[in-house]
Amino acid sequence: MNNKDLIYFLKVAELKHLGYASQNLNLTQPALSKSIARLEKLCQTRLFKRLGRGLELTEAGRLLYQRGLVLQNGFDETLRQIAEMGAGLSGVVRLGSAGSATQFLLPAVCREMQLLAPNIKLEIQIGMNDVLYGMLGRNELDFILGPIVKGDKPVITVPVTEDHVVVAASRNHPLAGKEATAAQLSRCGWILPAKSVAMRKWLDRYFFDNHCPALDVRIEISSLAAAPELIAESGLLSFISENSLSEEVFASRLVRVKNDDVIMARSFGITYLAENTLSPAAQRVIEVIQDYKNL
């Protein structure tokens, strides 16, 4: 069925007059008559009957009108959704987020996305960078929001902000808020991510280079950013994002242990595979993330 023929039929059925419909459609009356004739030939039955100077739908015509409205509305909605996808206003975006990003960056980004493009669905996977980079390499994510590190595959990175990772402890820890040497820190128990995570590698290397014993890691956890209460109640030292530490959920429970040498500076931003082409929806999300300081 030709979609134009259906549109013309619906307009004639609405106005119940061939002349009025042709004027409304900016179409000659003979051309409109041919369109209706094509439909009737396709349906193998009459769709209109004469009623005075106007037209009236036959029983078959009423059925086509009812179903035609549904079809046309569905077609129009499909075109609208496709146009929104092309403009980056709808679609699904698979976002991998470091735990710290869920505390200080993602809330504002998600709020802004609901205002600008509520039809974009975000599928967010929260994890440590080693897990997220594995998922990115398997094309299970569109991009990662978190610390920028080198992966096994060529990637494109978009820096967003700077971050520092610092030693932190519960407020009642003996070293809480105090200056502490590397030797003092190495004698404490720790709660840290796995050895494969970049921040853990940096910390282990620091103590090794300063001739300290290996850290006494008593709890290994996949996401420190998700466990401020656990860190506080464990009585252990940890190594967390300074951005996260400034958030109320952390600041109310944890404080920094001061040692200006044990600070890991890192660039925080967006990473995606160089071989991949981002969808318009993913590009829209990235634009919002890049502007996060103004959110």
TrEMBL record:
Family, as annotated: Belongs to the LysR transcriptional regulatory family.
Domain of life: Bacteria
Entries under Gene3D superfamilies matching the protein: 3.40.190.290, Winged helix-like DNA-binding domain superfamily/Winged helix DNA-binding domain
Stored SUPFAM superfamilies: Periplasmic binding protein-like II, Winged helix' DNA-binding domain
Single GO term (MF): transcription cis-regulatory region binding
Pfam families per the UniProt record, alphabetical: HTH_1 (PF00126), LysR_substrate (PF03466)
Protein name: LysR family transcriptional regulator
Keywords from the named record: DNA-binding, Transcription, Transcription regulation
Classification lineage: Bacteria, Pseudomonadati, Pseudomonadota, Gammaproteobacteria, Enterobacterales
